[in-house]
Queue: 3 jobs
Job 1
Amino acid sequence: MDLVPADLRATVRANFKGALIWCGAYDLERANQDLQDGKADLIAFGKPFISNPDLIERLKQNVALAQPDFNTLYTPDEKGYTDYPAAV
Ligand SMILES: Cc1cc2nc3c(=O)[nH]c(=O)nc-3n(C[C@H](O)[C@H](O)[C@H](O)COP(=O)(O)O)c2cc1C
């Protein structure tokens, strides 16, 4: 799923001279593909890091990712932010 239209991404890439970081619904495969294709210098992960505190290890070891609970996102306390278990 690509949240930002490809033509907009290309326009930003062509005109912005700094390090370009994209984020938004990335998985490892699409992140690596965009980096290989030169579409970005870095890819950021947001929600996957919330629901997978061990995200890096899971990606390295090809462990399935936990999905975030949207009922506890954008809420004022820590529930749903710091209580997801590590799997690795
Ligand atoms: C709980 C939460 C809070 C966020 N707060 C901000 C924010 O304050 N400013 C901002 O630019 N983006 C904010 N974002 C958006 C993220 O920076 C990012 O664009 C979005 O989560 C898409 O990346 P992802 O699919 O990897 O989560 C927030 C996202 C989440 C889930």
Note: Helices lie at 6-15, 28-36, 47-51, 55-61.
Job 2
Amino acid sequence: MTVTPDLRDANAVARAVGLPEAPEIWRRTWPQSADSFGAGEVFFLTEDWVPRACEALRVSQEVTTALQDCAAAVRESPAMQRLAWHLHWLLCLSGLSPEVSAWPRLSDDHPAGPMLYGLVVLSGWPHLREIHAARGLDLEITLDTMSDLDTWTRDWHAWEGGYRFTALGWMQHHLRGQLLQLGRLQYLPGSYHHAFRWYRHTSTGRVIALAEDGLLFREDGQFASADGSSVRRGLWRSSFTETVSRVTGQPVTPEGKVLPEAVTLDTAEWCEVLRRGDPVMTVHIPSRGRMDPASCGESFARAVAVYREHYPDVPYRAFTCQSWLLDPQFEQLDPAPPNICAFMQEWYLHPVERAAEEQTWERVFDLFGHSQPDWENAPQDTSLRRALVAFARQGGHMRGGGGVIFPKDVGDWGRQGYRARGGVA
Ligand SMILES: CC(C)(COP(=O)(O)OP(=O)(O)OC[C@H]1O[C@@H](n2cnc3c(N)ncnc32)[C@H](O)[C@@H]1OP(=O)(O)O)[C@@H](O)C(=O)NCCC(=O)NCCS
């Protein structure tokens, strides 16, 4: 017979669910969720709540079953019920920072372990709906935003087998109403952190990026820190100077290379539009089906409209993205992946510090947390996989990149506007 631990003691509950102890954030906040907890009364643990929520959110059958099984196992254990309630309270109701990076991986030995955090995320959806409704957002946006629960659980299944939800750090942004999925893409407010200064010509609208001062670059316009700092020859350092009337610095081409010849911009004609520390809207691409270019353009147009109408208090100067998808080398692959290239060509690209290939291998060969693919046995069932295996065998190294799109230019989607107008003065 299992003995119910003292439910007032976070450590005792943690031990009862197979953990050595409760993390500090659980212990510190534990008493605060005690009054609102009643064994057998947790709303998301009633028998029909999970299937109904999953139906409303269009969660796939296999993930619904995994969440239902998890809820059934939680119902069996007063310790699990108390923990599930505390985590729901901490993540969705408390208004505190839930410090999810300290939440331990729950043991597979307990049947509720692998999906408990997924269940907690699901439990947050009525609250998220209230947050979105208060902003005047349609139900469809809430449903699309919550679809990441299904996406990440299914991705885990594809990578590792079995159902486990591990994307809590990511989905905390969704549950607090910070991240929105608008059609094909997702948006999360952030702060610009790359070492480039961006200018727009006041009459032509042309955009140009200049590198900040004192950065080390390679001959090919990548940061010296790219590819594990493996290239040491031909390095050069950027210089940036600024007066009231002129800025001088090395420009970035819209294709993402920093050029060694400096250019000078007259500040009567060029207006600064973005620099480090400015508010931006970071863009994310969920792994849900293909990414056709038109749907991405529609998503950007919608983002401009939604943030203007519903979040006038959330300023942002540009859309930004850092991803394995923004590697200009995709254009050289044989065959070049059409949607990835079309997406990339709309951005004003720039190199990123410490650019590396790991994310490409993770995302293309499902190698999360593992090493580089074994090229002899790597799967070759898509044209991208085949092209990347050939590229790697020839000694190539893919690497992530960054990009910027200004809200003003979103209407140009599909015309490769930054490339067409050229970045370099
Ligand atoms: C981004 C994404 C939707 C692009 O897919 P897409 O629209 O099919 O892209 P393309 O049309 O350019 O693909 C061309 C080919 O490459 C394949 N391909 C694209 N992405 C692939 C991937 N991640 N793994 C394996 N093959 C892939 C396609 O299936 C297609 O193959 P085919 O010619 O044999 O039919 C897809 O890569 C994806 O879901 N990635 C996961 C999410 C992600 O990486 N987000 C960004 C995180 S920073």
Note: The first strand starts at residue 180 and ends at 182.
Job 3
Amino acid sequence: MHHRVKDRVALITGASSGIGEATALALAEAGAKVAIAARRGERLQALAGRLRELGQEPLVLVSDLLDEHEAQRIVADTEAHFGQLDILVNNAGVMYLEPVAEADLGRWRRMLELNVLSLIASSQAALAGMTKRRDGHIVNVASTAGRIANPNSAGYSASKFGVVGFSEALRREVYQHNIRVSVIEPGLVATELREHIGHAEVKKTINAWADSLRQLQPEDVAHAIVFCVSQPAHVNINEILMRPTDQER
Ligand SMILES: NC(=O)c1ccc[n+]([C@@H]2O[C@H](COP(=O)([O-])OP(=O)(O)OC[C@H]3O[C@@H](n4cnc5c(N)ncnc54)[C@H](OP(=O)(O)O)[C@@H]3O)[C@@H](O)[C@H]2O)c1
């Protein structure tokens, strides 16, 4: 339990697995009321059971953020259910890695829509209430791929550089309203993210690399997010770039 997080209302997107799931648990453990969003309802229900064991009754939001109205809808539903939204964790994302020359642009378009445009839409939706109450925190999950670019990662990096740029511009627009914006940039984390890579060779290479080092665990990233949102009101952690100790780039 953390007194600065206790009873604050947090909405976590991409909460059905990986970093989002760990963040929902960590925020609930710190005393937050949580709304959990993703497409896989059964995974969210399983998480809801674990959150109830922590004494929190979560709001479960089954939602496909590729539907352009869903980002606004889940923010509105959270505000309607809990009365307000204090902490928005924009975590939902996909990573399609392949060389530009072979890229499936339809998939890349959906990656950019989810990783960037839906994050912009949920941030915009949260601003009205946060501005009115002069209180709020938006945490955007980017990546080391939003700070350095590598081959096979052009589309993903375009999305995550987009998140980093958006977050800093947003911070400078809203800081006078006492709204904080933090961006989290993890290196390799042991989650399901890599399972959706369509390019067999790239997938094999990155999985072999992941197996060769001690990856971050989702809980490590969740701890960084809790650290951001549990600071005193005058402290804004703008950015956390974190890698496995064993990761060079
Ligand atoms: N793993 C890493 O190495 C790493 C490193 C740096 C940054 N990140 C970032 O961390 C974030 C979380 O990823 P993760 O590693 O925890 O992977 P993950 O376990 O695959 O989680 C991705 C989450 O996004 C949700 N999602 C995917 N498509 C969606 C859609 N159309 N609508 C709504 N939700 C959707 C998934 O839920 P459903 O499938 O149930 O919808 C899932 O909960 C991502 O933004 C990723 O880019 C990951």
Note: The chain has a mean pLDDT of 98.
